[in-house]
Amino acid sequence: MTLTLAVVVIIILLYISWIFNGLGTMGLHIFPDVYTRLHAATKCTTFGTMFMSFTVIAYSTRLYIIEGEARFLNMAIHTFIALIALLVTNPTGAHAIARAAHKMGIKPAEAVKDDLEGADLQQKKPVMMKKKDTSNEEGDK
Amino acid sequence: MIEFTTLFYGSALLFGVLIIICALRVFLGPTTPDRVVGLDTINTLVVGSMIALGAAMWETLFIDIAIVYAVLSFITTLFIAKYLEGGED
Known about the structure:
The complex is a heterodimer.
Chain A: H1 5-30, H2 34-67, H3 70-104, H4 124-140
Chain B: H1 4-28, H2 32-57, H3 60-85
Helix pairs in contact in B: 1-2, 2-3
């Protein structure tokens, strides 16, 4: 393969993918806490796999432009759908893990400030009680 | 010059090594959410290596399997988080 502009762009996208996946895995072992580990691992790994998908999309599109067969375009479209599925599902799962960890009562490490400390995350029941109380009072008056 | 197929096989190999390093966190993790974070990272890396192998072997089927794997691992993570929260909600 000769070094045209498209080949250089594809190789740069591939290297970005490798670097970010490596950084995410490093952060999983360096950080001291569940929340910081979640931050490092989920963000960096999602970004790296996004760039892996971009690499495959660019590679397939280049081969489709050169050779003109439909199977290359097919590969690009399928990879794009995989990219969208990854983008929708991955941050939602990370948010669910962080919420479960906070509800289990795991404290952040000392360097981190907990903004939700003492906050009542289940606000449905007190609000319902207040509404009932006010309606009773108004009924009495 | 290196061919693209070699680069994609190499990236699948690199992702495999990273998966083993993440599995260390799953075994070592002090608390249960640490293990779940490691498992979630492993799932994302498996999807990436499936995409790389699909491009290396020119199999579109691998990428379809990667889509289904991403959605199923998302559902698994949600159920584990629901179980960890406890309570009746």
